[in-house]
Each structure stands twice: as structure tokens, then as C-alpha cells.
């Protein structure tokens, strides 16, 4: 391409090849590519990145969170940092997250807790089994954390409301994801922070409104370069605040001015979940 379209090729080189890989400072300083040469390392890295994106999107789907709704963080294994770093922006855009956090230990996203091993505990506690189980169900998070620490030290556990100490063999040590955490359990290990703050909800509504505006432009037959007039009507304060906060972004993305229209060319009523 470079000999025929030198400026266009240079633009592509600067914004794709150099951004996501390695190469000469200019396409015109690089060697002519050899046909059939395959970089196996790049192919393997791309395969890992695709697996990360697939797992993260599956987590979104499992939690019924649309891709248009931004999330605060994607968590990846620290060992994937070198592989994923060149594709940082692509991963963020595909999954729609604000940041990517690399962890050396995914246990920090989970909470450990003790659960009675009913097969063993039933034989030892007998009639007291239900009572002990009810006492454990009422434990606070801090109390449970203390019992987990005691269990790990292989010491007997004493719970308020029951007279006897409980040996560790009566329990199973389990873990559960912390609130607002979604973690994959197969393939590449990834996790998402699914907590939706007010700011994230507002941005999600903005993206939804923008999508409908672009669809309306298309339905009205406007060219991509045409400037248009937009008007919004809603009785929901949360949606009004979205239009006010992201008004400049809406105008820029839709090539529009927002003003009150007496007789609009097209109107469309949409239903949005304002959270």
C-alpha cells in the first residue's frame, strides 16, 4: 500500500501498527513484508486476549448487565499483564470497563467462611445439630472471619450460645465471591466489579440515549455529515440530569444542536431504566 497510498498507509501505521505492536518509526522505513511469515507468539497472545474478553462478556451476561453499561474494573491474573498490555485499550472498549487491575492473588476477591459438614457433625452433635447451624447462620462477617482464623490454626471453635467447643473436623472451609464481584471459574481467570454507582448508571443511560439518537438519525435518512436539531422530553429527573450532564457529548457525537422543537421531523418514544 505504501507506494500507492503513502499518506494513508502512514496514518494506518502510526495508529495501528505502532500503537499495538512494534515496528519502525515510519512505514517508509520498514522492510517490505514477507508473505507467509506468521508470528506464532502474537497469535497465542491474541488467543489469550480473546479468551479474556469472552469470559468477561459471559460474566456480564450471567449478571444481566448490558455491555453498554460501564463497569469500574476488570481483574486479571498478574501473569497476563505482559500479554494483555499491548491490547489494553481494545480489552477496555470490548468489555466497557474503566480500568484493568492485575492481581497476584484472586483470593482477595473472595470471602472464606465455615459451613458444617453435616455428615460428620450429625454424628457428633446429634440433637444439637440444628441449634449450632442456626447460631452459625446468625454470625456477623467479623465473627465468621475470626472463626476462619481459628479454624486455620487448627484450634477448636467456641460459639456464643453453645456450651461445648467445636472441633475443626465438623466444618468445611468454603469461599464465596464478595458482594458486587463476579468471577469466572473456568478457562482464563477473570473477575468483574459489578457494583453500579450513580455515576456509572448515569453514563450507561447516556450511552443508551446516544444509541437511540443515532438510530433516529439513520431512520430519518440523514447522512453521517448532516447537522441536525434534537429535542428531549422526559418527566423523570434522573433522565433529565443525564441529558444535562452529557449534553456536550450528545451534541458532538450526533452533530446536533439541542433545542425545543415545535414540529420535529421525527419523534420516537423510548423506555429506559433509570436505575
Provide a quick synopsis of the model.
The protein has 275 residues and is of the alpha/beta class.
Strand order of the largest sheet: 2-1-6-5
Measure the end-to-end span.
50 Å
Low-pLDDT parts are none
Discrete helix count: 10
* Class inferred from helices and paired strands: alpha/beta
Query: What is the average per-residue confidence, as pLDDT, rounded to a whole number?
Result: 86
Tally of DSSP β-strands: 8
Description:
The chain is of the alpha/beta class and 275 residues long. The chain folds into 3 domains: 67 residues; 70 residues; 60 residues, no CATH class. The protein contains 10 helices and 8 strands. The mean pLDDT is 86.
Features:
alpha/beta, 3 domains, two-stranded antiparallel ribbon, 8 strands, flat
Task: Give a topology summary.
Blueprint: H1 6-20, H2 40-62, E1 71-77, H3 81-84, H4 88-95, E2 97-103, E3 110-116, H5 118-125, H6 129-137, H7 141-152, E4 171-177, E5 181-183, E6 190-193, H8 198-219, E7 228-230, H9 237-245, H10 247-254, E8 256-258
Parallel strand pairs: 1-2, 7-8
Antiparallel strand pairs: 1-6, 3-4, 5-6
Amino acid at each position: 500500500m505504501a507506494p500507492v497510498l503513502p499518506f494513508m498507509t502512514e496514518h494506518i501505521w502510526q495508529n495501528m501498527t505502532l500503537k499495538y505492536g512494534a515496528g519502525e518509526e515510519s512505514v517508509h522505513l520498514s522492510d517490505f513484508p514477507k508473505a507467509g511469515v506468521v508470528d506464532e507468539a502474537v497469535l497465542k497472545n491474541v488467543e489469550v486476549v480473546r479468551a479474556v474478553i469472552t469470559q468477561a462478556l459471559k460474566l456480564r451476561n450471567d449478571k444481566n448487565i448490558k455491555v453498554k453499561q460501564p463497569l469500574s474494573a476488570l481483574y486479571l491474573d498478574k501473569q497476563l499483564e505482559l500479554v494483555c498490555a499491548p491490547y489494553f485499550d481494545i480489552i477496555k472498549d470490548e468489555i466497557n470497563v474503566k480500568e484493568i487491575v492485575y492481581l497476584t492473588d484472586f483470593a482477595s476477591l473472595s470471602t472464606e467462611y465455615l459451613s458444617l459438614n453435616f455428615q460428620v457433625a450429625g454424628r457428633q452433635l446429634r440433637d444439637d445439630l440444628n441449634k449450632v447451624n442456626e447460631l452459625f447462620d446468625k454470625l456477623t462477617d467479623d465473627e465468621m472471619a475470626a472463626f476462619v482464623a481459628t479454624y486455620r490454626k487448627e484450634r477448636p471453635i467456641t460459639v456464643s450460645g453453645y456450651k461445648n467447643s467445636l472441633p475443626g473436623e465438623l466444618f468445611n472451609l468454603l469461599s464465596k465471591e464478595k458482594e458486587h464481584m463476579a468471577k469466572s471459574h473456568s478457562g482464563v481467570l477473570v473477575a468483574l466489579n459489578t457494583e453500579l454507582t450513580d455515576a456509572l448508571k448515569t453514563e450507561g443511560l447516556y450511552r443508551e440515549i446516544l444509541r437511540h439518537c443515532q438510530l433516529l438519525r439513520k431512520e430519518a435518512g440523514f447522512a453521517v455529515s448532516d447537522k441536525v436539531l434534537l429535542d428531549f422530553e422526559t418527566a423523570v429527573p434522573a433522565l433529565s440530569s443525564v441529558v444535562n450532564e452529557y449534553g456536550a457529548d450528545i451534541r458532538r457525537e450526533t452533530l446536533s444542536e439541542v433545542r425545543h422543537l415545535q414540529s420535529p421531523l421525527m419523534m420516537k418514544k423510548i423506555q429506559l431504566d433509570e436505575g
